[in-house]
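Q: C-alpha cells for this one, please.
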Amino acid sequence: MRVGSDENMLAYVLWNLLDRAVSSTRNECIHIESVTEGDTTHIRVRNAGVYFYRTICHGFRQVQHAAEKLGGTISIDYNTDTTTTIALTLKAA
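A: Here is the predicted structure, written as C-alpha cells:
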C-alpha cells in the first residue's frame, strides 16, 4: 500500500488500533487482515471480546480524526456475539 500522506500519522492510527485490541484482550483471539481492492486498502482488526468494543467507544475520536486527515475512514462493527471489527479504509495516492 502506498499512501501519499504523513507516514507518522498512519503509524499513529495503526498503533492505536492494535494497541487497543491488545490492551483490551482477555484471552480472546485478535485477527488482523489487510485487503487491497483496486486503489483502496482495508485494514481490519477483529477481536472477539466485549472489552475491545468498550475500549474503542471511549476517547477514539482523535484516532478517527487522524484517519480522516489521511483521507481515510474508520468504521466500527459490533456483532451480537461480542465480536468487534474496526476497519481502516485508505485510498492509494
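A few notes: Strands lie at 30-37, 40-47, 73-78, 84-91. Residues 7-23 form the longest helix (17 residues).
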